[in-house]
Amino acid sequence: MTDYRLLEARELLRIGFLALFEETFESGTGEAVTRWTVDHPGVVAAVPVVGGPDGPAALLVRQFRPALRRSVLEIPAGKLDVPGEDPDAAMVRELAEEIGHRPGRLVKLAEVLNAPDFSNQRTHLYLALDLAPCDAPGPVLHEERDMTVERIALGDVPALVAAGVLTDARTVIGLLLAERTLRDTAGGC
């Protein structure tokens, strides 16, 4: 496997937090290859875990996703769109905005690439533990106002994925990593 060398990058469109580029690379054999890529600031997402009589459960949000024209059940998440904001701080802010809780502990689970075939979008995945209720850090926007919070037992996750109830990739990855992390640390929450 040889690396490709960037020869030229031309911004075609910038809209909101996204930028579309046409980029030309030189392959290891000297061939010029053109690709279109999307620059994205990145995302933070967390599995907020609470205890319960049936074991640990995650607090998920159901929210409308315009690209799909329907609501999706997901772990709380948000864009890294505040210049200079640390991912940990962004995650704390997003949890307060979306589920009204502040984590006592954040455990980094992984960083995953969402669609490396055309975008540099990266998701920082966390496990959020020792949750305490809190007020939203600012005015509640329509997106948060329309969200609902649902409690999902971690033990039910494989069946919910198989049934098509949980379809968001970062949610599935986050929930499975959270369950494994908690199991490996003897229940951890």
Question: What do these coordinates show?
Answer:
- The chain has helices at residues 87-99, 142-145, 157-162, 169-184, and strands at residues 5-15, 18-26, 32-39, 43-50, 57-65, 70-74, 77-79, 101-113, 122-133, 148-153.
- With 189 residues, it is of the alpha+beta class.
- It has 2 domains: 5-39, no CATH class; 43-184, Nucleoside Triphosphate Pyrophosphohydrolase (Alpha-Beta Complex), CATH 3.90.79.
- The relative contact order is 0.19.
- The mean pLDDT is 92.
What would the principal axes of the Cα set say about the shape? globular
Order of helices and strands: EEEEEEEHEEHEHH
What does the average pLDDT come to? 92
Q: Major beta sheet, specifics?
A: 7 strands, mixed
First-residue to last-residue Cα separation: 43 Å
Q: How much strand?
A: 35-45%
Task: Name some characteristics of this structure.
189 residues; alpha+beta; Nucleoside Triphosphate Pyrophosphohydrolase; 2 domains; seven-stranded mixed β-sheet; three-stranded antiparallel β-sheet; 21% helix
What order do the helices and strands come in, and which of them pair?
Layout: E1 5-15, E2 18-26, E3 32-39, E4 43-50, E5 57-65, E6 70-74, E7 77-79, H1 87-99, E8 101-113, E9 122-133, H2 142-145, E10 148-153, H3 157-162, H4 169-184
Parallel strand pairs: 4-9
Antiparallel strand pairs: 1-2, 2-3, 4-5, 4-7, 5-6, 5-10, 8-9
